[in-house]
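Recall the central idea of this unit: under ordinary conditions, the amino acid sequence of a chain determines the structure it adopts. In this exercise we apply that idea directly, starting from the sequence alone.
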Amino acid sequence: MARHRDPITLLGGWLTEQGIAAEAELQRHDDDVRRLVDDGLAFALDAPFPDVSEVDRHVSSPETAKTREITFGKAINEALAEELRRDDRVFVIGEDVAEAGTPFKVLSGLVDEFRHRSSDRLADLGSRRHRPVCGRCHDRHAAGRRHHVR
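Accordingly, the structure predicted from this sequence is:
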């Protein structure tokens, strides 16, 4: 029953209905994801436990090793900014993305910093244009881009 409400299943159905993707293509993607998850699980289960002296290794980067208290929105803003700076393939797409930082100010400063670098790094689709988001993300993903949908 829950499978019929699963957003991934629903998206797959919509993509095939719209002619954006063939069912065989979606099945290949599903098989690839299952293989990646299975490989990752097997790797984790086969890996030895780390030595106690390494328990805090790779927990945080040296630049952010200091503890500080920030809001959830600020944390999202900083994470998106870090990824946008690190990887030119990353883009943010959704409703109110290009507006003055969205109603909760989660994207404050990102528009000013990244809009000039590339016109499609931050794409505002407006409230009535949700369906094209899937198609645009699919097209950009196929071109090797990485996305964050708001």
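The chain has a mean pLDDT of 76.
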